[in-house]
Amino acid sequence: MDGAENGEHSRKMVFVTVGTTCFDALVKAVDSQQVREELSRKGYTDLLIQMGRGSYMPSKVSGEDEPLTVDYFTFSPSIADYLKSASLIISHAGSGSIFETLCLGKPLIVVVNEELMDNHQSELAEELAERKHLFYARPQTLHQTIQDMSPESLIPYSPGNPMPVVRLMNKFLGFPTD
Question: Which CATH class is domain 3-173?
Fold first, then answer.
């Protein structure tokens, strides 16, 4: 029999990454009952959280009667395989995580760490959200973003010409633009 009959093909994983930082507000947000219920309502079955240097420990949830299986880890030598196997990625606003996900063509919600001072990453995330390449949220609005999102509405990011992004990043960082 094929995998669809035993449920293999119906698994939809959400991968959350905070990179190498501490972003407990994001980990707490995805660990909330509100967000987990919203992800389950949207058809996601698994939530895997890469929690970085954070101290908040999310709850592991598993079992046949659980609509959403939750697991977590701190670091991995590479998150590429997690990104590739995910149906949805929820990420901090690090440019590396953003562009790696966009180049894979995966739906992405970028959550901004409002505790960072002079946060140019949020400006980049806002600009890419305005261009409809990703969804943008804050920890306290994540459940609403998930509820309202329509991944089909996203415009695929075309990494062909890096100059518009380079100019955008230079502008945000205060470097001269040509």
Answer: alpha beta
